[in-house]
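Appendix B. Worked example

We walk through a single record from start to finish. Start with the input: the chain for Disintegrin and metalloproteinase domain-containing protein 11 isoform X10, Zalophus californianus, length 574.
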Amino acid sequence: MQGTRLPICCPCSFCSCEPAEAEKEKVRRGHPTVHSETKYVELIVVNDHQLFEQMRQSVVLTSNFAKSVVNLADVMYKEQLNTRIVLVAMETWADGDKIQVQDDLLETLAQLMVYRREGLPEPSDATHLFSGRTFQSTSSGAAYVGGICSLSRGGGVNEYDNMGAMAVTLAQTLGQNLGMMWNKHRSSAGDCKCPDNWLGCIMEDTGFYLPRKFSRCSIDEYNQFLQEGGGSCLFNKPLKLLDPPECGNGFVEAGEECDCGSVQECSRAGGNCCKKCTLTHDAMCSDGLCCRRCKYEPRGVSCREAVNECDIAETCTGDSSQCPPNLHKLDGYYCDQEQGRCYGGRCKTRDRQCQALWGHAAADRFCYEKLNVEGTERGNCGRKGSGWVQCNKQDVLCGFLLCVNISGAPRMGDLGGDINSVTFYHQGKELDCRGGHVQLADGSDLSYVEDGTACGPNMLCLDHRCLPASTFNFSTCPGSGARRICSHHGVCSNEGKCICQPDWTGKDCSIHNPLPTSSPTGETERYKGPSGTNIIIGSIAGAVLVAAIVLGGTGWGFKNIRRGRYDPTQQGAV
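Next comes the structure step. The output line below is what the pipeline stores for this chain.
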């Protein structure tokens, strides 16, 4: 998209008027990635009154049952996804439900999210309801796809069954929170084979036994979700668990200096620095991406690389064994060779959205100009009642998503009706313009250009409108002067805080504090500072983090895990 670059000196206070900082030397330990780093899902479980009734009206039995379900799911995640499911809080509604647990799974899920925001003081990455009700659905669970870390979408509902079956349902609904889709579309296309033909795979809806394995497709989708900037809350190690402190569980809790885990785990890592949850002589630490040979890594050592253009690389602080929180750039930074904008940790362009949904590029601008002003099924700016809304001329790039060469089924969701295909001849070229209405289970339509996508010079899409950046609810980071965000020595994060280049420190990155030029092993790395001339720093009202494979939908768990796959009188384990 030509002409969308901000002027080097613009009238807003968050533009930079100087070139980016020259490359800096930065010490480096290795190549940690979001895939190799252990992730932690901090989970709150809410047990409804019906489950309490199923457990003979015993809070202790209900709690123990729920803990066992979580532990079984944790084993699957730990072994295959390098991800721990950590129970940080639990609530049992012994005196009656605190929300209306309805026959409709989606209604119950929506009410659970309201209760989470208004009634649960404990922070978590996800909140899941364990219900004793039999829902009027072919599904045994429902969850918001890609909703992890979101206060309004990080949750799921799981229907009661025996311990092993419910653990599989929890693995599925948490998988959906983590960006996994059901395997059926890719399996039917022949590109998603399950490695366990007998038991099946976790994100499948077929089989007669309780699955234990994630398919390669599910693992790839989870990795892609992380690579696209999702799951930023998963990288902090929990400091408080539901159960009382216990030496040997791998988590540093009250009264402990360290905890390298079981005897076997300590023998693999950390045992030389930590004995019986006490640091050995002269040891500073025993674990963490910023701990090496029982000592803190120096300030500036890379501990987490950026996963995409909109992410921020993290470095050790020099006074902690843990890598800093996983942050991304504040909305508005240019990306994809200045064709898109960072939004919620992702680079938003029409091309990327078409690739994610259909596997092909976006159509020519002329297609949007001709079709989206029609206000018909093949081109519009949304629905109004039973009809379609015409796009205003200036909003055509924020309306119905038009791509090229698409056919067959979308990569996610279900196609409603047929693919609309129109061909135009313009300036001696044949232009292919195609689109389709794709919906997820909750009725969410994936067929429109996403909020945060650039639609003109200093313009962004929001609710099918192309709006000037100046109309948005902008925030900014501190700087050493007007138009000097982070003093040109750092990048502004989604928390509104400066992440400084290695040789700079302070809230506004204005204090020069040079690093050693090399590590003790002599390893060095060239550091490229962020450009200070290409940002619009904005927090767009109503923004929701939507990963490329997510797009705000709702996922479902399938009841055939329960029906006919085991003896319901048995308390089988996964």
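Two observations about the output. The longest helix spans residues 59-81. The first strand starts at residue 24 and ends at 26.
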